[in-house]
Amino acid sequence: MDSTFWFKTLEVIMALGLLVIIHEFGHYSFSRLFGVWVEKFYLFFNPWFSIAKWKPKAKVDKDGNENKNSWRATEYGIGWLPLGGYCKIAGMIDESMDTEQMKDPAKPYEFRSKPAWQRLFIMIGGVLFNFILAIVIYAGIVYTYGEMYINFTDATEGMDYCDSAHKYGFVDGDIPLMADDHQLTYLDGDELQTILTAKTVKVLRNHKDTVTINLPENFIFIANKDAEAGQMFMNYRLPVVISQTQARMGAEKAGLKSGDRIIAVNNESTPSYTELTPTLKKYSNKTVSLSYIRNGKECKTNVQIDSDGKLGIQLTDPTKIFHVNTVSYNILESIPRGIEMGCDKLVSYVKQLKLVFSAEGAKSLGGFGAIGSIFPESWNWLDFWNITAFLSIILAVMNILPIPALDGGHVLFLLYEMITGRQPSEKFLERAQTFGMLLLLALLLFANGNDIYRYFFK
């Protein structure tokens, strides 16, 4: 295993470790608020043994009884199995499956002794804290970095598309305008998600014709297969504007300069880098006629291409070619923007989640390998925090699903109790918890099995 694997593993552990701590702290905080004893607070699971654990010195009253509603009453630790974490809450049937305490009469500091509405807040505390964390991260990102984006309409060369996009009607150079009834603005994760899940997409073709493209319902999975093969669905189409030339290579020897825009090779049109690369490759180790624009005038020169099909040029950054919108935020402005971004990501992910319940969706499920693949190969704080915020939203959504053993399963039973006035029996809750844990284990094995299959066979 190379260094990239271990670097990505570290990023995953850092991100998931933070998310698990915040999630469990949500349960912990509401438990403490309502006077419920939290017996253990653990990052990662600790079957058989723990990497580290700490139990503060107990605080006792004058009669020698320990104060259960105190941070000192909790054992804190780090487990060795990085599949999540847990709060062991007294008087509750949870993943610990500790049913012995349930045989004794309920004590005032136990979960089961509290009103249903308090138990409900304790159960949604983790999900709520994960969503709040995502908002805080997004607010911090826009406060620190601001937002820079290029509108689709300002990208004069349009977009380059993957093979599947071409198959369903997209043409390189198309400028996206509408996805269903949503007006498209610029390329980011939310807009891309909107396009991939739309039924129809309108594009501007050749800067004059509006064309409607019909997409199949499972198009997002088709595009994802291209992404796994290294083809993004679309990217800004870059005109070949030279930033600088490399010493002793063809471009420098031919007199090309910064700011020159290459438009043709041997009279073959190369309006963007997409066409230039394969065209140069075709003329490796040859001298070609190169057409370029300098100071608004078309010029020609002969240039030598090396054995790798290279001229020896660096492209100008697109932000220096196209009009770039820059938005800065002060600390007060960053908070509502963070809330807006968090809500947009939440809605986008919920829309995508429904597609998982299909044959194609099941195949697209991934585990820790899929999570690791989205992290950068070199350290980048902006990428790390963007990914961590989105994973926090995913964790919140997945945990609120009405599956026994997840927070959503407990919430479902609590809502049933609040509506009917009848609490499910302890035997039912035990069986539901066992079923839920087996189901989650099966999903975990399936998702990570998909990762292994894709790694070795795809």
How would you describe the overall organization of this protein?
- By secondary structure, this protein is of the alpha+beta class.
- The chain has three domains: 3-138 and 386-457, no CATH class; 152-237, Pdz3 Domain, CATH 2.30.42; 240-320, PDZ domain (Pdz3 Domain), CATH 2.30.42.
- Helices cover 43% and strands 21% of the residues.
- It has 13 helices and 16 strands.
- A hairpin with a 2-residue loop joins strand 5 and strand 6 (182-183).
- Helix 1 packs across helix 11 and helix 2 (116-145) crosses helix 8 (331-353).
- The mean pLDDT is 86.
Mean pLDDT: 86
Summed up, the helix count is 13
- Strand percent estimate: 15-25%
Q: Show unreliable segments.
A: none
Structural class, please? alpha+beta
Report how far the terminal alpha carbons are from each other. 18 Å
Task: Please report the total strand number as a whole number.
Answer: 16
Largest sheet: 6 strands, antiparallel
Order of helices and strands: HEEHEEHEEHEEHEEHEEHEEEEHHHHHH
What share of residues is helical? 40-55%
- Total count of domains: 3
Radius of gyration: 28 Å
Shape: elongated
Primary descriptors:
6-stranded antiparallel β-sheet, 21% strand, Pdz3 Domain, alpha+beta, 458 residues
Quick overview:
By secondary structure, the protein is α+β, with helices and mostly antiparallel strands.
Walk me through the topology.
Blueprint: H1 3-33, E1 38-54, E2 75-89, H2 116-145, E3 147-149, E4 159-161, H3 163-167, E5 175-179, E6 182-183, H4 189-196, E7 200-205, E8 209-214, H5 219-228, E9 234-236, E10 240-245, H6 250-253, E11 261-265, E12 268-269, H7 273-282, E13 287-294, E14 297-304, E15 313-315, E16 325-327, H8 331-353, H9 359-364, H10 368-373, H11 381-399, H12 407-420, H13 426-457
Antiparallel strand pairs: 1-2, 3-16, 4-9, 5-6, 5-7, 7-8, 10-11, 10-15, 11-12, 11-13, 13-14
